[in-house]
Automatic annotation (TrEMBL):
Source species of the chain: Talaromyces marneffei PM1
Domain NAD-dependent epimerase/dehydratase: 7-83
Pfam families: Epimerase
TM annotation in the entry: none
Molecular functions (GO terms): protein-containing complex binding
One cellular component (GO) term of this entry: mitochondrion
Protein name, per record: NAD-dependent epimerase/dehydratase domain-containing protein
C-alpha cells in the first residue's frame, strides 16, 4: 500500500512544523510548502540543530500567492493543510515598532474592512493572487481567507480527498476582530463553494498536546 501523502502550506512555521513532525513520525510522506523552504530551527524549536524527523520531510519553496508554484505538489496528495495566516498586519506592527503614528496606525489596523485579493474562485488558470490594498498590504483578508480559498480550490482541481483548514477558536483583545472574521469567512466560502471537497477545520487553541 502506498504511503499517505500530506502537503502542509506553512509547514515551516511554529504550528505547521509540528503538523509535519506528527505526520512524518507516523509514516506519512510529508511536503512542507513555504517561501523559506526549511525553517530556521531555533525559531520553531528550542535548538538550532535540525531534528531527526526533519530529514523525512520535503521542505519545498513555494509562494502561497502564486498557485503555479505549489500546484505540482498537490498531485497524489492524500490531504492538504492550510496552516498559514498572520496575527498582526503591517499597520499594527508599525505602531508597535514606532515606524507609524499611533493614531493612523491603529485606525487602519482596526478598520472594519480591508481588501483581500481579486475573487480567488474566479481567477484565470495559473493566475496569481493580487492583494488589492493600494500599498499591496498582506491583510487578514489576503492571508487568512483568500489564500486558503485558493488552496482549497486548487486541491479540488487535483482531486485531493481531504482539505484541512487551521482556523482559530477565538481572538484576543489586542487583535482586530477581522483576525477571526476572515477565518470564519474562509470556512464558510470553502464549504459552500467546493461541496465535493471533504473539508475539516481545526482550532489550535482547543487542542491539548
Amino acid at each position: 500500500m502506498a504511503a499517505k501523502r500530506l502537503v502542509v502550506a506553512g509547514g515551516s512555521g511554529f504550528l505547521g512544523s509540528r503538523i509535519c513532525k506528527h505526520a512524518s513520525v507516523r509514516g506519512w510522506e510529508v511536503v512542507s510548502l513555504s517561501r523559506s523552504g526549511e525553517p530556521q530551527w531555533d525559531t520553531v524549536t528550542a535548538s538550532k540543530e535540525r531534528p531527526g524527523w526533519a530529514s523525512d520531510v520535503e521542505w519545498a519553496k513555494a509562494d502561497i500567492l502564486k498557485p503555479s508554484t505549489y500546484k505540482p505538489y498537490l498531485k497524489d496528495a492524500t490531504a492538504v493543510v492550510h496552516s498559514m495566516g498572520i496575527l498582526l498586519e503591517a499597520d499594527y506592527k508599525g505602531v508597535v515598532s514606532g515606524k507609524e503614528s499611533i493614531i493612523s496606525g491603529l485606525q487602519r489596523a482596526f478598520s472594519s474592512t480591508k481588501r483581500g485579493t481579486q475573487d480567488p474562485l474566479n481567477r484565470g488558470v495559473g493566475e496569481e493572487l493580487r492583494p488589492q490594498e493600494s500599498d499591496g498590504q498582506l491583510t487578514y483578508e489576503v492571508m487568512n481567507r483568500d489564500t486558503a480559498i485558493a488552496l482549497a480550490q486548487e486541491s479540488s482541481f487535483e482531486h485531493v480527498p481531504t482539505f484541512v483548514y487551521i482556523s482559530a477558536a477565538g481572538g484576543a483583545p489586542i487583535l482586530p476582530s477581522r483576525y477571526i472574521s476572515t477565518k470564519r469567512e474562509a470556512e464558510s466560502i470553502i464549504s459552500q463553494s467546493l461541496p465535493d471537497l471533504r473539508k475539516s477545520s481545526h482550532y489550535p487553541s482547543r487542542w491539548v498536546e
